[in-house]
Specification:
With 586 residues, the chain is α+β, with helices and mostly antiparallel strands. It has 17 helices and 25 strands. It is globular. It comes from Actinomadura violacea.
Length: 586
């Protein structure tokens, strides 16, 4: 899904969280227990009132549901927006379930999974009192997928709708009332999507925030992020980029039309661009309720939350994110596969794991693009490494393989390039430094460039022209599935058709026709076993191209203050806490 920062984070999804185990007090504290929220929702409550206080070390990519991708954004935006479907507010395996939200039921498929029909709930109103109709959902999809302005989210609809033609320029340029012919709204409570190819996981797709309705009369393009019209239980009172967002109750929200939201707090406050260490300290002090980034506490905080008093308020889930490094094929000399192979061998993954927090707060060393928790994972390692005795990095045999590849690349003494990391993610910067040191041992010299998470994809690494012009050959990122299948994980990072002029996530610019064709074949199949096998095949094909360096299958050490209610790890959003029904004990 989603870039973890991305994500994204995007985005999206972890599976098999049961591997983390159930609750374990892990100490003398009185909390629900260590890992208690991994498989069940803890501190359950229906108590209304109070203010839910949230913070984030950076900012949204955009709070506009049609122009966002980070996993935490999409988790959070459900406070003020309702898509056709969504992930069930739950914990563990149950949280991977897609359930109706604005729709009354899952989509009705016909024409071999090329036509999908949804019925909308009646009585749903925007925060200005006007009724939500199917036309508002259609318009939301058109603006998010077919305009030059909205570049940050995925373009699945543009790829798969039957009349995907250059002649349609989106609703800002096409002023006709008809819009896309491939999305029909025969009445105010029915919407029909006509696809050019079968798409067996379409219910998963419409669970993304791009189906959150937008009233055409209130759309202000990129300025809409500051004047969002809510369809959820909360309305956006104020959003100031880089500072804050405040939410209060939507007076037109009717709980009888919304069986999944509790809407407990009276107010929600989100502070942005906060120092990551300060966020941790405020969580421990009780003056903050949640770090919405969902990436865990900082290294300096880990010992503090693992004391007997605090450990019962922590969770260490397998998140379903992959932390990896993309190698751009259009930045020399990484246009040569042997130079990319050299990087694969010479990148010390144990050093990268240690820099990010070790096995507990970092994750397990990765060798594949698909994490073990996503359908389609197949265990293999095309670039095996061994550590030297005494913990001094990679052994001589592994380094020799890297040097052989450098010679085959025509760079026997090495080369120079740049590696990027997000400036507000100290652990990611530390990972870049560890990779820098390990590559230097074979003559690959990299300089580190840093940009904030809020701009990382839409201004820098996700802009191919910028990457080429500035020679950024290596880019760190993290990714979770848009939904918990191989297609939901792979399509936006390895499909050549997902390459965009800005805000893209296929940072390597992988455009292998065999990969593209296999993705189409998989999503067209109605047989899950066939799809699962193809996802593993695609993973191996991309690794043979050596354009992605898997680093760690992510884990995080998360902290839940005792006053926060209805806390559970959602697999749907990559293994962070589900924010939808959180409340507070006043």
């Amino acid at each position: 899904m989603r870039p973890i920062a991305a994500l994204a984070a995007g985005a999206l999804a972890a599976a098999g969280l049961a591997a983390c185990g159930g609750g374990d007090s892990g100490g003398s504290g009185s909390g629900p227990g260590y890992n208690a929220a991994v498989n069940k929702v803890v501190n359950a409550s229906d108590k209304k009132g109070g203010t839910l206080r949230l913070a984030m070390s950076d900012d949204f990519d955009s709070p506009d549901p049609g122009n966002q991708y980070y996993a935490w954004d999409q988790n959070f935006s459900r406070f003020y927006g309702r898509g056709l479907m969504t992930f069930k507010p739950a914990a563990g395996d149950d949280s991977k379930t897609i359930i109706p939200d604005l729709a009354t039921a899952p989509g009705q498929s016909s024409d071999g999974a090329k036509t999908w029909t949804y019925k909308l709930r009646t009585g749903v109103k925007f925060s200005d009192g006007t009724p939500v109709t199917s036309k508002d959902v259609k318009y939301a999809v058109e603006r998010s997928n077919f305009t030059d302005e909205m570049q940050l989210g995925p373009k699945y609809f543009k790829t798969y709708l039957v009349d995907n033609k250059p002649s349609y320029k989106g609703p800002y340029k096409d002023k006709s009332d008809e819009g896309l012919k491939s999305i029909e709204t025969p009445d105010d409570n029915t919407i029909v999507f006509h696809l050019s190819k079968p798409f067996s996981e379409f219910d998963d797709l419409v669970a993304m925030s791009q189906t959150i309705p937008v009233p055409k009369a209130k759309d202000t393009g990129l300025k809409y992020e500051s004047s969002i019209v809510s369809s959820g239980p909360y309305k956006v009172d104020n959003y100031t980029r880089g500072k804050s967002m405040t939410l209060s109750r939507n007076p037109y929200w009717d709980p009888s039309t919304d069986p999944i939201r509790k809407a407990l707090p009276d107010k929600i406050e989100l502070q942005l661009k906060q120092n990551a260490d300060d966020i941790d300290n405020r969580l421990l002090a009780g003056s903050l309720d949640m770090d919405v980034a969902g990436v865990g506490v900082q290294a300096g905080t880990q010992p503090k939350v693992l004391t007997p008093q605090q450990k019962p308020y922590t969770d260490n889930p397998i998140q379903g994110y992959l932390r990896f490094m993309s190698l751009n094929q259009h930045v020399k000399p990484l246009d040569n596969i042997h130079c990319r192979n050299a990087v694969q061998y010479a990148t010390d993954k144990v050093a990268a794991q240690t820099a990010y927090g070790g096995p507990l707060a970092g994750g397990d060393v990765a060798t594949t693009i698909l994490p073990p928790t996503v359908d389609g994972y197949r265990k293999f390692d095309l670039f095996p490494q061994k550590q030297a005795a005494g913990g001094n990095g990679l052994d001589d045999a592994t380094l020799a393989k890297a040097k052989q590849e450098l010679a085959a690349c025509g760079k026997p003494t090495g080369f120079s390039t740049k590696i990027s990391a997000r400036s507000d993610r100290p652990k990611e910067v530390a990972m870049a430094q560890a990779i820098q040191q390990s590559l230097k041992k074979v003559g690959i010299n990299v300089s580190i460039v840093q940009w904030p998470a809020g701009d990382y994809f839409n201004k820098y690494v996700g802009v191919p022209n910028y990457v080429h012009q500035h020679g950024v050959g290596m880019m760190l990122m993290a990714w979770a599935a848009d939904w918990p299948t191989g297609y939901g994980f792979l399509s936006q990072i390895v499909d050549g058709r997902a390459i965009k002029p800005s805000g893209g996530n296929n940072l390597a610019e992988e455009d292998n026709p065999k990969v593209n064709a296999a993705l189409d074949q998989a999503i067209a199949s109605t047989d899950k076993a066939t799809r699962t096998k193809l996802y593993g095949d695609i993973d191996q094909m991309v690794m043979q191209d050596a354009v992605e360096v898997p680093l760690i299958y992510a884990k995080a050490l998360l902290y839940r203050p005792k006053r926060v209610t209805n806390v559970g790890i959602t697999a749907g959003y990559g293994g962070m806490y589900d924010y939808l029904n959180m409340g507070v004990e006043k």
